[in-house]
Design goal:
Immunoglobulin-like; elongated
């Protein structure tokens, strides 16, 4: 009987090129979060507010949330309801990790950036 060898290629450990962030934004501002890593087979942005379970994020029809081609999360026209934890879930064949970004939103507009703001 002839023997055959099978070669398996596994992804190495994840190399993260971004860091966790704590950011304060004002109502109406825009904010971009980075999730730059290599050796991943799966990446997903998630949102968590308070004790809720994380919710997967994707490009939305209202255009306020978008994920760029570089897998950056872009929030535009921020409201106080956007405050919370934004986490980037990364996985490979060997491990899974989260990058955590916390967004704090100030209810008052920054002077000179918007003429009308919602609180």
């Amino acid at each position: 009987m002839e023997s055959k060898s099978i070669e398996a290629n596994y992804v190495d450990l994840i190399e993260v090129h971004s860091s966790n962030e704590n950011v304060t934004a004002y109502v109406g501002d825009s904010q971009k979060f980075s999730c730059n890593a290599s050796n991943t087979i799966f990446r997903q942005w998630q949102y968590k507010n308070g004790s809720s379970r994380p919710v997967g994020l994707s490009n939305t029809s209202n255009g306020r949330i978008s994920i760029t081609s570089n897998f950056e999360l872009l929030l535009t026209n921020i409201s106080v309801h956007d405050e919370g934890i934004y986490q980037c879930y990364l996985s490979s064949n060997l491990e899974a990790i989260y990058l955590i970004h916390y967004l704090s939103v100030q209810g008052n507009c920054r002077l000179g950036t918007r003429t009308q703001c919602l609180t």
